[in-house]
Amino acid sequence: MSAGYAVLRKQAAMALVLVACLFGSAVADDTGKTETLNRTISEIAELTRSINERIEEACALRDKLNEQRELLKNEINQERKLHDITSFRQAVQIKRIDYNLRLIQQLSAYIERLNGSMEYFRGANQLLNFYARQARDDLLMLKTLQDADISGLMNKISAAKDEFEMVLNKPLFVASEPSTRSMEMIWNDIIKK
Description:
The protein contains five helices and no strands. Helix content is 85%, strand content 0%. The chain is mostly helical and 193 residues long.
């Protein structure tokens, strides 16, 4: 029995060496892939936190601008009652009303742009969460199958991260862009209420 056992041990050792030679590089490569995926998941989480901070910043600014807009509308209504104004043509003859309408027009444009930025950032978060789920799935595949091609996913994630990081470094909106609403439209909205 001991001779048969020795032969069996020798065959098992040779099989182990053969498996290590054949699959050793794949295991080492999978370790690198695992580290890459784990690092990428962490980077996505950090970028998502930065995007959430930017969304909160935009929401706070939008709320302040909305408050200012409401104050200006109230002031317009007071002036309107004081001067018994019924038409837009009459309204723009009063400097305070004309000025407030221009301010409201600008504030409305800023708010629109902030809403667009927040929408963009929410979409960015959704995409990053999708990529993070894919990366976690690829990690599971690496554990199960011992091989997975992650290059396509990594290229997509890299491109998305580059774009979102670039946008995070830009202002939330550009103030010089023209407003989409006319002063008369704003006036009509104010007098309807």
